[in-house]
Amino acid sequence: MHERLSFHIKRDSFLHRLNPLTKLALTLALILLAFTFPWYWMPHLLALAAIIPLSLLGKVFREFMLTALRLIIPAAGFLFLMQAFFQPVGADVIFQFYFLDMTSESVLFAFRNAMRIVVMVSAFTLFLLTTHPSELMSDLTRRGLPGQFSYVIISTLQILPQMQTKAQTIISAQRSRGLDTESSFLKRAGSLIPLIGPLVFGSLVEVEERAIAIEARGFTSKHAKTSLHEIPDPAFDKSLRWVLFALIIASIGLNIWLS
Amino acid sequence: MAFVNIQNLTYKYPLTKEPVLKNINLQVQEGEFVSVIGPNGAGKSTLCYALAGFVPHFFKGEISGEIEVDGKLSSKSTLDEWVLNVGLAFQNPFNQISGAKYTVFEEIAFGLENIGVPRDEMKKRVEDAMSLTGISELADRSPYSLSGGQQQRVALTSILVMRPSLLVLDEPTSQMDPIGTREVFGVVRKMAEEGMTVMMVEHKVEWIANFADRVIALKDGQILLEGKPNEVLTSDVLVEHGFGVSRYTSTAREAKQRGLWKKNNLPVTLDEAVQGFKP
Question: In the predicted model, is pLDDT for residue B151 greater than 90?
């Protein structure tokens, strides 16, 4: 099992070639516009006129739609129902379910909030689909993010699947010696307790050894770090970031001005 | 003046009652390949950590005596400076993979990134180190997808690429097959001939006999024996103290008692045994 905790799909597209920081800025801009722009249909417009075209531009339309259908739409749908029923606004009841009222105001309110969530999760999904985690981290480290911070992020992404594999190995080993994993839930839960020890203590020992190993390779060296891969950051990316920054400021400004 | 100079080194971990290393005195010359043998709990790994600066800088604990490498004292240095001069690779290869990199090539470059080697030089050094240890074909694989022996070679390469003047290896071939072991010993021998000083803890005595310049037998935190591989590895003292010896040595010792081994010296390797048993 060589699975990684990463959504990244290796393709060659406009979106993949953008500097990771630009993509991060784009993601933030989409989210902030959806939440702060003082126009009711903004999140809906962003989802249709920005998110979907971007997924086509990034050549990840199919993967993005799969995630959207399986995860984003159901979650947002649930959120919509909850808010539509429980938001106590408006008097114009359009639908009743026992004691729960759905008013036209609460429906509008819930629809916008659900779409905001859709935009937020979709923007992040697109970002993760088109950005390699190590590329993002080395770019951010180059810009001054502490090396320890990016190490924690990247190694967690890699080590968690390894821990899963290890847990599976321990379980298989114990099953082969008669561990009960198929009877009632409580019994199984009880029989898992002895497995936690080896996994947790083993992991603690590993942490110490790993600390030694990376220290031996100059991890805390006071030299300025260099990077094996050059991550391009052309003038286009820089200007695009300024445009996005201006959009965010304008949206927040409008929001404050109109309120 | 010796390149490595350990004077009266005594060390106790924070949570142990007894010292793990007791009054160790050891000198190693530049370019020498020294091998350390000893039973479990003899203090071999602790000696490695002491040379590599992790004792006491990482583990803390009580230390007395001095460790000097290349004219610098460990007590007057910090760990991040010390590791530039002394490289350490140890037994468990899985835990030596940084976890921060997605390919073997990047993994080996990790140390060079940390110490700020320019990109072009970095690529060249990683390629050279990989071809030296024979893992060039693994460059694009994920370090986690490799076998134990391959991971050990990656760990060794990751340290070699940093070009330390003293290389400390704690059982670097424990998960390797005989072919891998021979290649690693060959690489280490070559590094020693090019001037790198090597200190290697190893159980595989036949390989030590073939490749090392000197053997140190460690027991209960003290140096029991020290000398040329063939003298130390065939000594009766090792048997008395429960060290693992080569099967050829024990066979010949048995034969000697029955008058079947005519030579004075006992063999360590198969070749020596064959020579000795020839009528």
Answer: yes
Q: Which residue, B179, B132, B113, B49, is CA-closest to A151?
A: B113
Tell me, yes or no, if B135 comes closer than 8 A to chain A by beta carbon.
Answer: no
> What are the b/e assignments for A189-225, b being 16+ CB within 10 Å?
eebeeeeeeeeeeeeeebeeebebbbbbbbbebeeeb
Among A155, A215, A224, select the one facing B83 at the smallest CB separation.
A215
Pinpoint the alpha helices (H) of chain A: 14-17, 20-36, 42-46, 52-57, 61-67, 73-86, 104-130, 133-142, 147-176, 185-216, 235-258
Within an 8 Å CB–CB cutoff, is residue A217 touching chain B?
yes
Residue A110 backbone phi and psi in degrees, to 5: -65, -35
Q: How many CA atoms lie within 13 A of B257 on its CB side?
A: 6
Q: Do B114 and A2 touch (CB under 8 A)?
A: no
With tokens 């990199």, the residue in question is B101
What's the pLDDT tens digit per position in B90-139? 988 989 999 889 899 999 999 999 999 999 999 999 999 999 999 999 99
Pair B269, B206: CB distance under 8 Å: yes
Q: What domains does chain B contain, in order, with CATH numbers?
A: 4-245 (3.40.50.300), 246-279 (no CATH)
CA dist., res. B272 & res. B265, Å (int): 10
User: How do residues A10-54 score in pLDDT, each as one tens digit?
Assistant: 899 999 999 999 999 999 999 999 999 999 999 999 999 999 999
Check CB contact under 8 Å for A217 and B111.
Answer: yes
**3-class secondary structure, B25:** strand
Q: Please state the ipTM of this predicted complex.
A: 0.90
Q: Which two tokens stand for residue B137?
A: 């074909």
Dist. CA B103–CA B143, nearest whole Å: 6
B6 to chain A, any CB pair closer than 8 A? The answer is no
Look at A213 and B95 and tell me if their CB atoms are within 8 Å. yes
Using alpha carbons only, what angle is made at residue B27 by residues B23 and B30, rounded to the nearest 5 degrees?
155
Q: How many CB pairs under 8 A join A and B?
A: 115
Q: Angle at the Cα of B202 (from B199 to B204), degrees rounded to 5?
A: 140
Residue B43 CA to chain centroid, in angstroms? 13
Record: contact A228-B109, CB cut-off 8 A: yes
**Residues of B with CB below 8 A from A228's CB?**
105-106, 109, 112-113, 119, 122-123, 126
List all residues 6 or more positions away from A11 whose beta carbon is below 8 Å from its beta carbon: A58, A59, A60, A130
Residue A187 pLDDT greater than 60, yes or no: yes
pLDDT band at A1 (very low <50, low <70, confident <90, very high): very low
A222/B80 touch (CB, cutoff 8 Å), yes or no: yes
| B180 interfaces chain A, CB cutoff of 8 Å | no
3-state secondary structure (DSSP) of residue A48: helix
Contact B248, B270 (CB under 8 A): yes
